[in-house]
């Protein structure tokens, strides 16, 4: 089952190829697929951003649901941007970039982590401490992978 999952994950990574070249995972909808990074912290849920409130940061367009959230992010983007450039935290721990689902998320110690999907999120949260250490050690290399 895990082997088939990783094969599927690899195939999805190939499909979104151009996004994998950037240090910030971004789609045509923007960073975090157009979701508001601040809302995860302020509302404890993902909220779709509005095209009226955007910011270009780290070569990606970030969308926000309110002007207040835009200003909060602008004042301290590193605090609100997801770890590992918004790529799947579990995938980074495995040594590669993978896309993420804005609905598969967690905040631990004030850090936003995104995952490929809810199933991967379960694997991430089950062993998050060790996986985060692995991902931290691999991110400096993985983030520059094309």
From TrEMBL:
<protein>
    <submittedName>
        <fullName>YHS domain-containing protein</fullName>
    </submittedName>
</protein>
<keyword id="KW-0732">Signal</keyword>
<feature type="signal peptide">
    <location>
        <begin position="1"/>
        <end position="21"/>
    </location>
</feature>
<feature type="domain" description="YHS">
    <location>
        <begin position="38"/>
        <end position="83"/>
    </location>
</feature>
<dbReference type="InterPro" id="IPR007029">
    <property type="entry name" value="YHS_dom"/>
</dbReference>
<dbReference type="Pfam" id="PF04945">
    <property type="entry name" value="YHS"/>
</dbReference>
């Amino acid at each position: 089952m895990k082997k088939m999952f990783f094969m599927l994950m690899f195939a999805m990574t190939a499909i979104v190829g151009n996004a994998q070249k950037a240090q910030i995972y971004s789609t045509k909808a923007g960073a975090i697929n157009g979701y508001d990074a601040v809302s995860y912290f302020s509302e404890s849920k993902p909220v779709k951003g509005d095209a009226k409130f955007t910011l270009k940061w780290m070569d990606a367009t970030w969308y926000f649901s309110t002007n207040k959230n835009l200003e909060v992010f602008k004042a301290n983007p590193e605090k609100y941007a997801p770890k590992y450039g918004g790529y799947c935290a579990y995938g980074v721990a495995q040594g590669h970039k993978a896309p993420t689902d804005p609905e598969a998320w967690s905040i631990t110690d004030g850090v936003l982590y995104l995952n490929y999907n809810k199933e991967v999120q379960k694997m991430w949260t089950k062993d998050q401490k060790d996986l985060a250490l692995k991902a931290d050690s691999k991110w400096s290399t993985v983030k520059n992978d094309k």
